[in-house]
TrEMBL record:
<feature type="binding site">
    <location>
        <position position="391"/>
    </location>
    <ligand>
        <name>ATP</name>
    </ligand>
</feature>
<dbReference type="GO" id="GO:0030246">
    <property type="term" value="F:carbohydrate binding"/>
</dbReference>
<dbReference type="InterPro" id="IPR013320">
    <property type="entry name" value="ConA-like_dom_sf"/>
</dbReference>
<dbReference type="Pfam" id="PF00139">
    <property type="entry name" value="Lectin_legB"/>
</dbReference>
<keyword id="KW-0430">Lectin</keyword>
<keyword id="KW-0812">Transmembrane</keyword>
<comment type="similarity">
    <text>In the C-terminal section; belongs to the protein kinase superfamily. Ser/Thr protein kinase family.</text>
</comment>
<keyword id="KW-0808">Transferase</keyword>
<dbReference type="InterPro" id="IPR000719">
    <property type="entry name" value="Prot_kinase_dom"/>
</dbReference>
<feature type="domain" description="Protein kinase">
    <location>
        <begin position="363"/>
        <end position="639"/>
    </location>
</feature>
<dbReference type="InterPro" id="IPR017441">
    <property type="entry name" value="Protein_kinase_ATP_BS"/>
</dbReference>
<protein>
    <recommendedName>
        <fullName>non-specific serine/threonine protein kinase</fullName>
        <ecNumber>2.7.11.1</ecNumber>
    </recommendedName>
</protein>
<dbReference type="InterPro" id="IPR001220">
    <property type="entry name" value="Legume_lectin_dom"/>
</dbReference>
<keyword id="KW-0067">ATP-binding</keyword>
<feature type="transmembrane region" description="Helical">
    <location>
        <begin position="307"/>
        <end position="330"/>
    </location>
</feature>
<comment type="similarity">
    <text>In the N-terminal section; belongs to the leguminous lectin family.</text>
</comment>
<keyword id="KW-0732">Signal</keyword>
């Protein structure tokens, strides 16, 4: 009996220790880092007084300090919202070696504590030129940046930013804190050599990340607990389940460039799933400051010689400053941009014109990818090595530039493998520049209709592209936080990457709507042949009008011709009508692109043709949703029977406007000068 009680007691003590250890992994509080469970690399070291030093006076080097035990984030669980929540609080100090402030540091959440591959200078030690802006990096960083870098599109040389897998911040702001006494933000100099307190908190339920700063009380005695400002400096909606893995490591990363600084962590607390323990300010040790250099005694002659040298150098500096001022004014005018007050909230997605000018080699003609009514598109390469496409379009003031830039910023948040990624924008001298990922294989339109330099795509490749575009539309219609209507789906707006994957691009006509909101009549915009009958009749754009355009797109992909072709015989001029006639006569395969020369799967061709006609029903409610389209394309659902009677389909009306009477009439002669540019059609109005 006594032995059994001893065994039970040993089991209880062991279990309690294990539970305590597990709990300790999820929360901790450190002031003396010599007792902390940290892994260090690079310049990082622990000083004799227990302070953690990330960097020193070594140039172009990095330093890392990570908590050795991984934090478990159950990203796949139904309770992932709670398991993703965390809170951390730490005191840092950045002591510059000279008047320049050095590079900066960051709090990092990473799938590995080994960031020795991280680049120095503006990369802040957590990414490099290869890993920057790669989604498989899985890194969240809160940067405390003391160097304004054009390569990183920084807003200034004293800012705080939220970074995801990249040195390009998704949100940043000038370093400051909300003063609850005067109810305004007071500036903070990060590289002041003084202690600064920072709170980083993620609410997994509401998916909001808050970052708050405050100066540490410097008078004696210190407040035991520092008072947190009532408003954060940064507050960003972000879904960390898309970034974090099951196990992540937390810690700090710092770097130096040609100018160095000493970066210290003076205290650190952390907790997963709740509020981190507030740090006791009475335990914070002041950061060490570099000693002032002592001048040896100087003779009068030596001082006179030094004075002459100083005067000569000063005169040379004045001349250089005048020359530099002239060059600065020239460069400022050369790279002048438009930046209004309301636009500052979108600044993380704004790229400088200087960066784009250099990336495209001054928008040279040999960098031109294409041109049209919208403007010109140029190929470029950012300093990080990322290849981009830069579209230059004219400002449309009447449509409201503020609303348009807001939608551009929203588009930058869209993330899907079959969407062309919008990286940012710039405004300058009456034009808007949109920056996208570069697609090396150009547009699908070029493969289908380029007769001078024909390119071939098998039907199976076309089928794969159609499925990719359908997946992107499902994401826009049902899976994103808002309903996104593209409103201009056609082959020329489908771009192909290096592996011929189709990506939907050109969101110039897109509109964003909150879910459940009634969609009001809008201007009738789109491309003739792709617009649903209810759109041209009533001016109402819905997901069903996107489905209709997707149907027209599928037909042009299979048939290798546009929805309306004025060069065809009258009975074949309108593609939907011709396909319906052939289907009714039992010769549906006659409509398949002749360039395929019969080398295709009749089953795949029939599936795409029938789905194209199903999307072209005149009654919007008879059209499938994009979720149903995916099921049909994947073979997970049977296609409903359709009749090929032409009256059931929304046949495009080719119309011209009578300028004298204001009436609209159907005509065939108007096709003589028919164009496939995107247009605002006929009687459109708000």
């Amino acid at each position: 009996m006594a032995k059994a009680l001893q065994s039970l007691l040993f089991y209880l003590i062991t279990s309690a220790c294990m539970i305590s250890l597990m709990f300790a992994q999820d929360q901790f509080e450190y002031y003396d880092f010599s007792k902390a469970n940290l892994s260090l690399d690079g310049m990082a070291t622990i000083l004799p007084n227990g302070l953690l030093q990330l960097t020193n006076n070594a140039t172009k080097t990095t330093g890392h300090a990570f908590y050795k035990v991984p934090i478990e984030f159950n990203t796949s669980s139904s309770t992932s919202a709670e398991s993703l929540s965390f809170s951390t609080e730490f005191v840092f100090a950045i002591v510059p070696e000279a008047k320049s402030r050095g590079q900066g540091m960051a709090f990092v959440v990473s799938p590995t504590p080994d960031l020795s591959h991280g680049g120095a200078t503006s990369y802040l030690g957590f990414v490099n030129i290869t890993t920057n802006n790669k989604t498989d990096t899985h890194i969240l960083a809160i940067e405390l940046d003391t160097n304004g870098s054009a390569d990183a599109a920084d807003i200034n040389d004293n800012h705080v930013g939220i970074d995801v897998n990249s040195i390009y911040s998704i949100q940043s702001a000038n370093a400051s804190y909300f003063n609850d006494t005067n109810r305004k933000n007071d500036s903070l100099l990060l590289a002041s050599g003084k202690s600064i307190l920072i709170w980083i908190e993620y609410d997994g339920t509401n998916k909001v990340l808050d970052v708050t700063l405050a100066p540490v009380q410097t008078t004696r005695p210190r407040f035991p607990r520092s008072i947190k400002p009532s408003l954060p400096l940064l507050s960003r909606s972000i879904n960390l389940s898309e970034i974090f893995l099951e196990e992540m490591f937390i810690g700090f990363s710092g770097s130096t460039g040609t100018i160095t600084s000493n970066q210290y962590i003076l205290g650190w607390s952390f907790k997963k799933g709740g509020k981190a323990k507030s740090l006791d300010m009475s335990k914070i040790i002041d950061p060490p400051t570099p000693p002032l250099p002592q001048l040896p005694p100087q003779s009068t002659t030596l001082l006179t010689e030094r004075l002459v040298i100083i005067i000569s150098i000063t005169s040379a500096i004045v001349v250089l400053m005048i020359i530099g001022g002239v060059m600065y004014l020239y460069q400022k005018n050369k790279y002048a941009e438009v930046l209004e007050e309301w636009e500052k909230e979108y600044s993380p997605q704004r790229l400088s014109f200087r960066t784009l000018f250099k990336a495209t080699k001054g928008f040279k003609e040999n960098r031109l990818l294409g041109a049209g009514g919208f403007g010109k598109v140029y190929k470029g390469e950012l300093p990080s090595g990322i290849q981009i496409a830069v579209k230059r379009v004219s400002h449309d003031v009447e449509q409201g530039m503020q609303q348009y830039v807001a939608e551009v910023a929203s588009m930058g948040r869209l993330r899907h493998k079959n969407l062309v990624q919008l990286l940012g924008y710039c405004r300058r001298k009456g034009e808007l520049l949109l920056v996208y990922d570069y697609m090396p294989n150009g547009s699908l339109d070029d493969y289908l209709f380029n007769t001078q330099n024909p390119k071939s795509l098998s039907l199976s490749q076309r089928f794969h592209i159609v499925k990719g575009v359908a997946s992107a539309l499902l994401y826009l219609h049902e899976d994103w936080e808002q309903v996104v209507l593209h409103r201009d789906i056609k082959a020329s707006n489908i771009l192909l990457d290096a592996n011929l994957n189709g990506k939907l691009g050109d969101f110039g006509l897109a509109r964003f709507h909150d879910r459940g909101m009634n969609i009001e009549a809008t201007r009738v915009v789109g491309t003739i042949g792709y617009m649903a009958p209810e759109l041209t009749a009533m001016g109402v754009a819905t997901t069903w009008t996107d489905v209709y355009a997707f149907g027209a797109f599928m037909l042009e992909v299979v048939c290798g011709r546009r929805p309306v072709d004025p060069d065809k015989p009258r009975e074949e001029m309108i593609l939907i009508k011709w396909v319906a006639t052939c289907g009714k006569n039992g010769v549906l395969m006659d409509t398949v692109d002749s360039k395929l020369e019969g080398n295709f799967s009749a089953k795949e061709a029939e599936l795409l043709l029938k789905l194209g006609m199903l999307c072209s029903q005149s009654n919007p409610e008879n059209r499938p949703s994009m979720r149903q389209m995916i099921q049909y394309l994947e073979g997970n659902a049977s296609i409903p029977d359709i009749s090929f009677d032409t009256y059931e389909f929304g046949i495009p009306n080719i119309c011209e406007r009578n300028n004298e009477t204001g009436t609209t009439q159907t005509t065939t002669s108007s096709l003589a000068n028919f164009s496939y540019d995107t247009v605002t059609v006929l009687f459109g109005g708000r």
